[in-house]
Amino acid sequence: MERVRAISGRWASRLFEALITLWLLATLCFVLLRAAPGGPFDSEKAAPPEVQAALATQYRLDRPLLAQYGAWLGDVARGDLGPSFQYPDYSVNQLVASALPVSALNGGLALLLALAFGIPLGIRSALHAGRWLDRGLMFVAGLGLAVPKFVAAPLLVLLFAVTLHWLPAGGWGEWKNVVLPVVALALPNLAYCARLTRASMLETLSADYLRAARARGLSEARLLFAHALKPALLPVVAWLSPALINVVTGSAVVEQVFGIPGMGRYFVQGALNRDYTLVLGVVLVVGALIVLINTLVDAVRGWLDPRLDAAD
Questions:
Q1: Res 308: pLDDT
Q2: I need a labelling partner for 197 at 20 to 30 A (CA). Which of 4, 141, 153, 186 fits?
Q3: CA-CA distance, 308 to 311, in Å (whole number)?
Q4: Per-residue pLDDT, 310
Q5: Over the stretch 5-38, which tens digit does the pLDDT of each residue have?
Q6: Phi, psi for 168 (deg, rounded to 5)
């Protein structure tokens, strides 16, 4: 019973911290957006003053800033992210609902690709530490980390779409449209995952308990999969949170390059057009997803190493 109470208290504390984090994030974003020069209807300067006034009234821009903040916060508490200034026929809820699955698919596949190739490559490199295979893999991983996404994405388009004509240069709707954006998002994460897995595996393989197990005659395969793999993956699991943030921030560039109707593209367009509600809606949804992923990552780390839960 005491353990159940402790777990319930810990999760209640995490929920409270998550709500406070999202509130601070939304408030900071609201203040920064309103502090930026320009407004959502600056392009409507040729419109008559009564039209400008009607637009300001419709979107509550004629109220004091504190009143605008309170009204928007009340709408968010009811699950209403408000109308979009840039897309007047759609609400922010509708835009986010259409864009979130697209970004989630790209980001999820990119992370899976990074883990599916990064972990085996890191293990392979650690098992051949100091040899030509290890040096070659780490050199390629270094290149993957050095090339930013805004360079990698156009290079992929130039090679596979323009030169080889294997894949489309942009668009959305078919499986071929997914390949290049996913690869562009995955490359730096794959490289970092491989280097992190190699370093963690080398440290684990040199542990005293593995030396003792090896002295008892256990095979290298059993040592690797039964004793070394699980503790070696702890740093990789902890890295998933910053990896997700890396994917989210990189999606803004990648979605612009490939013309994908995802969250990153809406965020960029909303920021350029001062679409306050759209930018705030995207920030809130992405922030909530990051908080959720952090919670799941903590749960997985607790499963891999129960001492972490005991420390909490």
A1: 55
A2: 153
A3: 5
A4: 52
A5: 655 666 677 778 888 888 898 899 888 888 877 7
A6: -70, 150
Write out pLDDT tens, residues 233-255.
888 888 887 888 778 777 888 98
DSSP string, 22-82: HHHHHHHHHHHHHHSSS-TTGGGTTS-HHHHHHHHHHTTTTS-HHHHHHHHHHHHHTT---
List Cβ neighbours of 117 (8 Å cut-off, separation of 6 or more). 190, 194
**Which residue is associated with the tokens 């809820």?**
93
Q: Rounded to the nearest 5°, which phi and psi values hold at 252?
A: -60, -45
What angle, rounded to 10 degrees, do the helices at 92-127 and 132-146 form? 160
Of the options 3.30.360.10, 2.60.120.20, 1.20.140.10, 1.10.3720.10, the CATH number for the domain spanning 98-262+291-311:
1.10.3720.10
Would you give the DSSP letter of residue 128? T
The encoded tokens of residue 2 equal 């005491």
Residues 6 or more apart whose CB falls under 8 angstroms from that of 304 comprise 230, 231, 233, 234, 237
Phi, psi of 91 (to 5 degrees): -90, 165
Residues of the chain with pLDDT under 50: none
| Domain ranges for the chain | 98-262+291-311
Which single residue is written with the structure tokens 């909490």? 312
